[in-house]
Amino acid sequence: MPRGDNVLLWDVQVKNNRRERVDISAFSFVEFSFLTALRESTYWHWCRFYTSTKFDPTLDAVKYDYHVFEEHPKLKVIFSSSQKAASFDCDRSSFLGRRGMPDAPESVLNGRLANRELPGGGFAVGALENRIELAPGESTQFVISLGCDLAWEKAEDLARKYKVPEVAQRELQAVKDYWSGFVDVFQSELPDVELQRMINLWNPYNCSISFNRKKSMTGFTTGMEKGGVQSRDSSQDSMPLVSLSTDLARERLLLIYRFQMPSGEFYSTFDPDAGKPADYYAVRSDNGVWPVYTTHAYVSETGDFDFLQTTIPYYEGENATILDHMAQSLKHIASRRGKNNLPLIVDIDWNDNLYIFKVDGKEESVMLAQLLVHACRLLGEMAGRAKRDDIAAFCEGMIAEMTHALNGPGVWDGEWYRRYIFSDDRPPLGSSKRREGKMFLETQVWAVISGTADPKDRARLCMDKAREILGTRFGLKLLFPAFTGIPEPEDPLYNNGPGIRENGGIFHHVHTWAVMAETMLGRGDRAYEYYRQILPNVASKTRGEDVYLNEPYAYSSTTLIDPDSRPGEADMAWFTGTVAWMYWVGTQYLLGIRPVLDGLLIDPCIPSHWEGYKVNRKFRGVLHRITVKNPSRVCKGVRFITVDGKPIDGCVLPAVQGKQEVAVEVIMG
Ligand code: GLC
């Protein structure tokens, strides 16, 4: 598909390897739809008569006119061949035959199409016959195109344009150039080719698809409804985009801030086209931390500190700077707290499935407190740079207060962190006092990432316990034991069955945070092991394609695990927060090439058997050719760094001025 045209092209090349002349026919065929999955599956009997399909001999094209009078754009669809069409068909019944199937259409078996139009509608198809006569050794090439536009004139222009095979080839090259440019920002040479393949190509590609087509962004996933943008998911999906496609990330971030209320709260879902929040509104109390993470990522990537002073209005409110938007958001989260001084879930936090545990909304969320601390650290750094001492002081105070609260006896269970704490005397979620849901992964990983757990003591202990209790050969379970009933085993079960998704499945999104946490603890062998467990190209091989069942090049959201009967089966590929976080954690924490406000931090945490690796990273307009050497086979630790042969102090490469590229050598040890 060319970047700028609504057209799908088939570039067909035929060569005669026989000793004699051949005279053959090539048949191309498409079945036209009713343009949305809803109409396709429910209204087909009615929609089909609101179409008309005809043949245009001047363009060798079948033209499909879709004129259902409601809602949808009345698309003009054109299916054409660059060579002369010897015959055509517009009617599925005559093309396939009364009992024909697409693998052996009757008219193809007969060697000729029926030249039948469907001006009054019906089950419309486009089928064309191309006659090919070739002498021995001779070859030919033709292009089949399927294009559409709102106006016939433009749709016809598309067909005309792609009658020239060279034009199609030029466009294909342009598509290739575009994607090379897109992934160019981070290219690696690693001792692990599977990892390299994901990091260099498939993961960034998946990031782009997820950013543009995530389940709630368009009707893409279901083909039916259009949900809108989710402030929480979309902020996270934008994190890798700050390097891959900076302008798009910035634009999305500004859009998200436009749907922040003056109180500081973010609308969970909104429709950017209609400029309105979605009708359904549950308070996802974590919404407001993620835009802070992405803003920090954006400023670190670009060095564009002015962005923080950009003013935009709150939704139906006054103008405020981005810095104030962020501060307002975190203050709002901090303003609703419970008896342990932790923020309240209100309706739900990051884990949507915990909604069913809501009793009075006064449940305290340990994870939200940890997320808040991390957000305060990032905002504090940015506020410091912007000389906003008021905001910096708030952040500092909140970090101290929350760190204290998070290590209180009501939160620490003895060997790990609890998850939800109820306002009455019900046993907390994630507590050994429960029969089910004794331990959750989210609060162990975020205890480490937020820096609220003592790194020598609780941080290691809770991650070791997570490995012991939640670890499986496919990854870490989100919780254990999975719920068979809620709140008690004898109660009914809502939502996912045990071992599936948030109910104790291997939830890849959280799993990526476990990788990040292990790198922060310096345990590269473990981090790498976890990372590889959910690499789709590795998982589909080691588990077996028939077990894994998802594509081997796109991230899946989850892996089913016991007590479910299909352990190892992956679910929901392409659209998951896993995509953004795998790229983030892989490039920035494992390979350790991490933009920070001051420049480019080099802080790898790799498996101890790696001798080294190379990364070409474009950062703030300069290509950094980075070579990492690991002569003493450590997981973490940088002995020294040189830039163009000159040693630097510390591990942060300051932004380079006046050069197109620099050579960076990193010696670990
Ligand atoms: C899904 C949702 C996301 C949520 C997560 C955990 O991925 O899209 O918003 O945070 O599940 O429940």
Can you identify the CATH class of one domain? Mainly Beta
| Biggest β-sheet: strands ordered side by side in the sheet | 9-26-27-31-28-29
Query: What ions, cofactors and ligands are bound?
Result: alpha-D-glucopyranose
Overall residue-averaged pLDDT value: 95
Beta strand count:
31
The helix content is: 25-40%
Task: Give an account of the 3D structure.
The protein is 35% helix and 22% strand. The model has no long low-confidence stretch (mean pLDDT 95). By secondary structure, the protein is an alpha+beta fold. The two termini are 48 Å apart. Among the domains are: 177 residues, Glycoside hydrolase, family 65, N-terminal domain (Beta-galactosidase, Chain A, domain 5, Distorted Sandwich), CATH 2.70.98.40; 78 residues, Sandwich (Maltose phosphorylase, domain 3). The protein has a six-stranded mixed β-sheet with strand order 9-26-27-31-28-29. A five-stranded antiparallel β-sheet has the order 1-8-5-4-3, with helices on one face. Strands 2-7-6 form a three-stranded antiparallel β-sheet. It has 20 helices and 31 strands. Alpha-D-glucopyranose (GLC) binds next to helix 8.
Task: Chart the SSEs and their pairings.
Elements: E1 7-15, E2 22-31, H1 37-42, H2 44-47, E3 51-56, E4 61-66, E5 76-81, E6 85-91, H3 92-96, H4 106-110, E7 124-134, E8 139-149, H5 152-161, H6 165-183, E9 186-189, H7 193-213, E10 229-230, H8 231-244, H9 246-258, E11 269-271, E12 276-277, H10 290-302, E13 311-313, E14 319-321, H11 322-335, E15 364-365, H12 366-385, H13 389-406, E16 420-421, E17 439-440, H14 442-449, H15 458-470, E18 471-472, E19 475-476, E20 479-480, E21 506-507, H16 508-520, H17 524-533, H18 536-542, H19 545-548, E22 556-559, E23 570-573, H20 577-590, E24 593-596, E25 599-602, E26 612-619, E27 622-629, E28 638-643, E29 646-647, E30 652-654, E31 661-668
Helix pairs in contact: 7-8, 7-20, 8-9, 8-10, 8-20, 9-10, 10-12, 11-12, 12-13, 12-14, 14-15, 14-16, 16-17, 16-20
The structure holds alpha-D-glucopyranose.
